[in-house]
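hey so i finally got around to running both of the ones u sent me last week. sorry it took forever, my laptop kept dying halfway thru and i had to restart like 3 times lol. anyway pasting them below in the order u listed, first the sequence line then the structure token line for each. didnt double check formatting much so if smth looks off just lmk and ill redo it

first one:
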Amino acid sequence: MSDDLTAEILRNALCVAAEEASIVVVRSAYSTFIVEGADAAAAILDAEGRLIAHSLSTALIQCASLRSALPFVLKAYPAETMADGDVFVLNDVYQGGIHANDLLVFRPVFVEGNPAYFTGTLIHVADLSGLSAGGMASDATDIFLEGVQLPPVRIATAEGLADDLVRVLAANSRTPDKLVGDLRALIAGVNVAARRLTEIVETHTPAGLARGVEDYLAHTERRMREGLAELPAGTHRGEYRLDDGHHIRVAVTADGSGGVIVDFDGTDEQVPIPINSGFSQTHGGVMYAIRCFVDPHLPMNEGCFTPVDVRMPRGTLVHCTPPYPGGGRFGTVAAAEEAIFAALTGASEGVAASGILQAFSISGVKRPWLHMSFDLGGMGARHDRDGADATGALFGGGRNIIPQAEPIEARLPVRVEEVSLIPDSGGAGRHRGGRGTRTVIRMLEDARVDTRGDRLLRPPPGAAGGLPGRAGGYYRERADGTREPLGTKATRQPLAAGEALVVETSGGGGHGPAEREETR
């Protein structure tokens, strides 16, 4: 059997192990957002922190977070101090995490007496303290108001869970049963992946697995460099402005032979509101944007990261530092992606911006319950095709991060009255932007709502003469049918029983001068 074929067999076996871990997490979790939305990630890394394989549902920002956080785990707990069965957890945005509610769990896999690999899982748990349920407070002025902060800590050993730590976490959650259930699901996932990885080692031998991993990482890197070599050589600049008026600026330098530098020097400084991004999230956004210019079938592993040098000045919107909050990072990450697209497509072609995800949470007043969702706007049009409807997550992922109506209604005191595309919400142009969506959720009990959106005050602009998409928004619908706007970053707004939350996402920008009359 050829070395290339062996490496490909091993790559797929490792991906299947990660996929099984992700499925275990989803089917074992307690939170509706995970069970129905399947927003879970699983990965396999080596002791150097390199990304080897991941599950199909893993978004690039999740890959980047697991990859970025593992070195901090190893710094806190050197490999020689670890024991088989140890499991570690963290959520620290400054140590590779995403935000307070995203828990990252790692387990070492021992080969010949040493931790040679790590399995990792990641999900957004229902609640872990903070100003608002679900970690959605848009008025958090520092990291401590976003939720409980966890540096790398040992959460389990071969003897079982660290019950004292679990009790502390449960005491800091509005939904303790769901939190503990989600945590157990994460640990079950890394345990399953560890068993599968041990089986792969036994089948292929430690040396055979190590050799196969090196071969396919090198193969991915070669293909990545071949794709990047097609980018126009030189330095190309782009920027994007958030609704808040803050700017993300980037310079992308391609050396013409497969190396790329992405430098965010000149980006605005971090601010005491949760629009900042942790470095791992920005890195994930960069990889998403750069991969849009290479072969889409390229496997996502360390070979993709190696040719791309990402420079994120500390203390800016793209690399927040203590104690600045980072929970609302997705608007900034999406802006970084748009800036890269603008830089690499140039003034002649340009890029139409997308309506990104609009997050919100609804929580109970009289008893604890929580619904969270990410509704998606329309994608921006390209020079050769219309934008896709309701897929504007950009860096987002998951098999289906929008939970379905029936399970929501079965589990929570709400009624989903409408989920529809908004006609003509995509920007006009030779090619039209993708349409945004409208969702109407009626309260059956008194509730509170938190919103977190962008590209609502400044709708996604078109390109090359195309028009902007229709701006979305959040609204309170009274029982008599009258509507009033909520803020794009509203916090703990009351919704009485009988009232509804209306979420409208932005349409994508159009591309080229408008030449079409038909509606869409």
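and the second one:
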Amino acid sequence: MITAVRTRAEAALADTLARFRSLTPVRLVGDLLVMVGAILLDLWPGPWAETRVTGWLLIAYVATYLVLLPLRHVLPAVVLIGAAALPFGGPALMVLVSYTAGRRIESWVKAVATTTLTFIVVVLLWDWDQRPLDIEPVYGMLILITIFGVGVALPFLVGRYLAQREALVQAMRDREARMRGEHKMLSRQVRLRERSRIAQDMHDSLGHRLSLISVHAGALALDPSLGDKQREAIGVLRSAALTGMGELRSIIGVLRAEDGPDDDPATRTAESIDSLVSDARKAGVLVSLVRGGQAHPLPSRVSHAAYRVAQEGLTNAAKHAPGAAVQVTVKYEPDALVVEVRNNPSRNGSPVQEPGVGLIGLTERVRVAGGILHVGALPSGGFRIAAVLPYEETPLPDEPEDEQDETESPRGIRKWAGVGSIAGASLVLTTIIGGFTYLGAQPVTEVVSQENLDRIQEGQSEADVLALLPDGDEPLVADGERKSQASPEPPGARCVYHITDEQSYLAKGTRVVRFCFRDGKLVEKKIHVQRTGQ
């Protein structure tokens, strides 16, 4: 547990240092301008302008911003939740920290958890008693969701979408660079293959003719009818042919040098592993060879692949774990040949490195031979290369599925990258617009018409009166406001308040009618003017 926490802390520190190193003057100046702009917007003409903050309190506010805004790049989730908990945090601060959190948080689980906790903090700290308008709680909740969606959720989703698109572009660039490198390697392999063909043609044609010249010259030198000068000339001819053969071999060696000496399956077989181990032992490698099972005849491709597994394993052990003990195992199982090379951890304590290019080529060679290659670190800290090779000649396998689908993978990335962020933003907007649309369609603006008001008289039954009253109320006038300036209610009566449909600008308030019931009868119908701000 402690090791895992230490590893994460070291990774976070390394990431932070990398970000600081990547800072350029342009980015630094831009971030400073953003910080200054956020402070000014929240001070003036933002909400702080109404409270007229001055003195040490103003310095404390600015200092808090100067700490949170740079820290948002390092701890985006913590800063977002902390900014939501600030009682004096302005909208510019929330938009900035939300956008940065969306760009910096990579895990979607952490992103969902962060936004959820932020919403909970906002709801808990929302002052339900002192709302911007004295409105019904349902409208207050809708306004709260709207503020959170516009000030937090949408900037967060925009930042996350841009981060995903940036990661996609970088992945495409890396893929293009990798494809260019693979194209160069392929071109090099084609050139090497052509050189090998040229060398083989020279060996088959020119070498054969030089051999014939040498043989004929040797036979001609035995003719007793020739004189000394003729024999000397024939000797020079035979010597020239032999010299030409030697030079030909040298040229062929140069042409095939880049293919490596292991490209001749006839001289690199499973039986040659003994000499390979012997040469490694002479070079100072602590290597042992273990053979097991009944020897089985092997196809040339399989035998050569077995030799290459042992050779690559010894090479990697000598390169990455110098001084470590190495064990080479060649075991003939009933149905397959198993070749394994394992080495202990390096004596100098160097960590096991990732497989190199040689193992990539070895994987392809084993695949072509019809076998399976396993490469990986051992629990003890060493390294293991093992191959399972068939005894029978197998046809060349088809191209692996991952290589066949390589061209299709970027399409999938391009198709789905950022879709989650777009869907989230659409959900936020749909919730806001749908909520206001639904509430706007409700009969909240129904008022008591003058016709029904005239029909209602004291002494009528409560059921008849309620049948003439509307179901909805004026949304921007809460129940507490409708009755706060009314006269005292009759003792023992239950009263309801409604807005009348006839309003007057000259009244400088809202006309409210009160209906009071007692014992199932209407005992009072009274109208008063509810003035705002009193």
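quick thing i noticed on the 2nd:
Residues 399-413 have pLDDT under 50 and may be disordered.
anyway thats it, ttyl
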